[in-house]
Write a structure and sequence with these properties.
disordered C terminus
């Protein structure tokens, strides 16, 4: 029996419809790298780090590529919808699978809150009289309806959401380059590449301030791992997943480094501030009224796309937990359209907390939810890396078959990325504004510990590690 045959059987046993085609998986992967963290969070990061924010996005992008190649190797070893939670369960033990699954679920719930917050802020561009919480509630209900349809419809919606984002960013880069080279528009007289260093240097607030933006920068990359969750519903994971992951460096170069290079050349960094999209501000500065409205529509699309993906992910992760007796059995059921409707419904209900935050503390809502989401994302990425390190050790020892998509550098680059993430966590602890997420993390850890204790009493077999032995037979 070939590894491809074994992988196909594992996927089939999950019961999902293999309804995501190659073009949809590719665009989901591309769209996952273009979210509210770039369009919304970049404003605050630019204000703190100045032009050096470009270097921070590039540095974080390299680490993200290491993480994704580690995940890619695991996915081609065994593509399952539970993805990183399944790998943590296999290589580190059931407890880590339990913690990773629930933490990734939490990440997407609070990310959904962030996306709803951002979308509500973007609506203010056209309708300032509409309260944030009203817009957030409307978007929540509409996207919930979309996610109860089949995975094919989800994939198609995400395809077009991502297409809008990609087309728009490329268009913004082209217009910005035109302003720089041809000097047209209101910004033409002041647009110059020297804006990258002319205003107090490339590191205007010091290297320390630039490094402190890394926790916000990492939030921008949340969702790149979403392609791992789609593995269980992809038509041909052996071909689509490697292609989606290998194009990641180009996505980072174009959509993050390239876009920010152009924007910060067209408009000097001192004009950007938190709470405002740098893309909207830049095109308002250029003096093209319609362009600012178009950009605002695109960033609104980005926020709704990420929220839509979050609803998709939470339902799948809850089902994986239920299938391993780590969540209520109701979450494990699929409806007639083969979607985990119960898990999606519960997750969306909790995302409604974001609507409440927009009502109670609209000015702080985005900061609170992004910091919590970043901490949860960092844990997920750490589990991917540690699982990959353990997997490579098992392969080197001859206990497991080698993946058809090995990560460059093997376990070494996973160690490098792991140390980087530990450093970012320390920066979060040092930042008084972002530190709130660690308090939430501590409370979350207590809740998970209590939940695990209850599960062990009810089902002592949960403590039995699945480990490498279960899959030795397919090597």
């Amino acid at each position: 029996m070939t590894s491809a045959q074994v992988d196909t059987e594992n996927v089939a046993e999950e019961g999902y419809e293999r309804g995501l085609g190659s073009r949809q998986v590719q665009m989901i992967a591309i769209g996952g790298a273009i979210g509210v963290g770039l369009f919304m969070g970049a404003g605050a990061n630019i204000a703190k780090a100045g032009p050096s924010i470009i270097l921070m996005y590039a540095l974080a992008g390299v680490v993200i590529f290491f993480i994704m190649r580690a995940l890619g190797e695991l996915l081609l070893y065994r593509p399952v919808s539970g993805s990183f939670a399944e790998y943590a369960r296999e290589f580190l033990g059931p407890f880590f699978g339990f913690v990773t699954g629930w933490t990734y679920w939490l990440m997407w719930v609070v990310t959904g809150m962030a996306e709803l917050t951002a979308a509500a802020i973007y609506i203010h561009f056209w309708f300032p009289e509409i309260p944030q919480w009203v817009s957030a509630l409307v978007f929540l209900v509409v996207l919930f309806g979309v996610n109860l349809i089949s995975v094919k419809i989800f994939g198609e919606v995400e395809f077009w959401f991502s297409m809008i984002k990609v087309t728009a960013i490329i268009g913004m880069i082209v217009i910005g380059l035109g302003v720089l080279t041809l000097g047209f528009s209101d910004a033409g007289d002041t647009a110059t590449v020297s804006n990258l260093w002319a205003h107090d240097g490339f590191f205007p607030n010091g290297i320390g301030s630039s490094l402190m933006t890394l926790q916000g920068v990492m939030f921008a990359y949340l969702a790149v791992e979403l392609v791992g969750v789609t593995a269980g519903e992809s038509e041909n994971p052996e071909k689509t997943l490697p292609k989606a992951i290998n194009t990641l460096p180009w996505r980072i170069i174009v959509f993050y480094v390239g876009a920010l290079l152009v924007i910060l050349s067209v408009v000097k960094w001192t004009e950007f501030s938190a709470g405002e999209s740098p893309f909207v501000h830049a095109f308002g500065k250029i003096g093209i009224p319609l362009a600012a409205g178009i950009v605002n529509f695109v960033v609104l699309t980005a926020a709704l796309s990420s929220c839509n993906s979050g609803m998709y992910s939470t339902g799948r992760m809850l089902r994986d937990l239920a299938s391993n007796s780590e969540a209520p059995k109701a979450f494990g059921k699929l409806n007639a359209r083969k979607t985990p409707a119960v898990g999606i419904t519960v997750s969306v209900a909790l995302m409604g907390i974001g609507v409440v935050l927009n009502y109670v503390v609209p000015e702080k809502a985005f900061l609170y939810v992004t910091s919590v989401a970043t901490a949860a994302g960092i844990w997920t990425w750490m589990m991917i890396l540690v699982s990959h390190i353990r997997y490579r050790a098992a392969v080197d020892a001859g206990r497991l078959r080698a993946s058809s998509f090995p990560a460059p550098g093997g376990a070494l680059f996973s160690w490098v990325a792991l140390l980087f993430l530990i450093g970012v966590t320390c920066m979060i602890a040092y930042d008084k504004d972002a530190r709130v997420c660690l308090y939430v993390a501590a409370g979350w850890a207590v809740a998970l510990g209590a939940g695990w204790a209850v599960l062990k009493r009810r089902n002592p077999q949960l403590t039995e590690r699945r480990g490498d032995a279960e899959f030795e037979k397919v090597g």
